[in-house]
Amino acid sequence: MAGVGSSNYWEDLRKHARQLENELDLKLVSFSKLCTSYTTSRDGRRGDSSDTTPLLNNSSQDRMFDTMSVEIEQLLAKLTGVNDKMAEYTSTPGASSLNAALMHTLQRHRDILQDYTHEFHKTKGNFLAIREREDLLGSVRKDIETYKSGSGVNNRRTELFLKEHEHLRNSDRLMDDTISIAMATKENMTSQRGFLKSIQGKVNTLANRFPAINNLIQRVNLRKRRDSLILGGVIGVCTVLLLLYAFH
């Protein structure tokens, strides 16, 4: 680069400033895309959509963010140094005749530097805020999933216990019903036996007096024994079926 007193010094500074500004413009565009892709990556993972998930994972994006931040900060520092040199040049005695034009050019480069600095800090701040918020939400979602997973196991175990308890209650109820039926049948048969005995005594008296009635009584007794056998068999089968169902 030419010396301060050289006529080309100012132009060299302007060319260097424009070069740094172009590099910063490209870096800031890539930096903004990186921050956007980081948000898309989080959203893609939240929705489990492979179409929206970028190829880079978050750890790679974090490293790229740090690297690009350092590069942009270095470029901003270099552009600041060039602007300072341009400001020094405008103060030299040889540049006093062109001071207004030089100051206008210098102000334009300072405005560009200020805009790039503001854009960089805004994008960086947004990125850090998004990463902090998503890390917090990710931790909360992990805790919720862990709680749901544990609760699911406990709920399943509780459901099985309740079903088993209900099954035992049904079995107890069926056993009580079976015993009640058996007791009622026994009482009914005892009552019928006593009633039949009282009738049998009277019928025997008549049978002794009338042979035809004796023959009829014998037939009735035969029918009664057959009905008793059938009733006993039916009650036994019902009892077995109820017991099998209760312990199934």
Automatic annotation (TrEMBL):
One of its GO terms (cellular component) is Golgi membrane. It comes from the Eukaryota. Its main location: Golgi. Residues 38-60 are annotated as: Disordered. It is found in: Golgi apparatus membrane. The keyword Transmembrane applies. Pfam families: V-SNARE_C. GO terms for molecular function: SNAP receptor activity. The chain crosses the membrane at residues 229-247. Keywords: ER-Golgi transport, Golgi apparatus, Membrane, Protein transport, Transmembrane, Transmembrane helix, Transport. Residues 50-60 have a biased composition (Polar residues). It is a single-pass type IV membrane protein. One of its GO terms (biological process) is vesicle fusion. Belongs to the GOSR1 family. Component of several multiprotein Golgi SNARE complexes. Involved in transport from the ER to the Golgi apparatus as well as in intra-Golgi transport. It belongs to a super-family of proteins called t-SNAREs or soluble NSF (N-ethylmaleimide-sensitive factor) attachment protein receptor. May play a protective role against hydrogen peroxide induced cytotoxicity under glutathione depleted conditions in neuronal cells by regulating the intracellular ROS levels via inhibition of p38 MAPK (MAPK11, MAPK12, MAPK13 and MAPK14). Participates in docking and fusion stage of ER to cis-Golgi transport. This is Golgi SNAP receptor complex member 1. The lineage of its organism: Eukaryota, Metazoa, Chordata, Craniata, Vertebrata.
